[in-house]
Amino acid sequence: MRCVIARFPFDLTKSGVLESMKGVKPEQVVGESVIIGRRTYPVKQVGQVITRQDRRDFSAGEVLRAMTQLGFTCRGLPRAAAPRRVLSPLQQASEMLGIPVAV
Fold first, then answer.
1. What is the pTM of this model?
2. d(CA 69, CA 34)
3. Average pLDDT, the chain
């Protein structure tokens, strides 16, 4: 498959990506990730290995799009938990007793 990453064209295949990532130890995932084989890699690490370019030269979206088109499972950023409502001491005590208090 022909794709453009960091303004450069690349001919990528699924087997070629698998071969490139063989023996590469995954870094800790803190953002978007790609599952290659049985391992989960950060998107930027995969992009660096397959393109041999600096991570600052391409976006995670470019690599995610290419890996998705090749059939790899990609995961986006984890969703942040909804902020919890802050209760006053009276509301906390009422909640512990099971008696709702009007706000």
1. 0.71
2. 12
3. 88
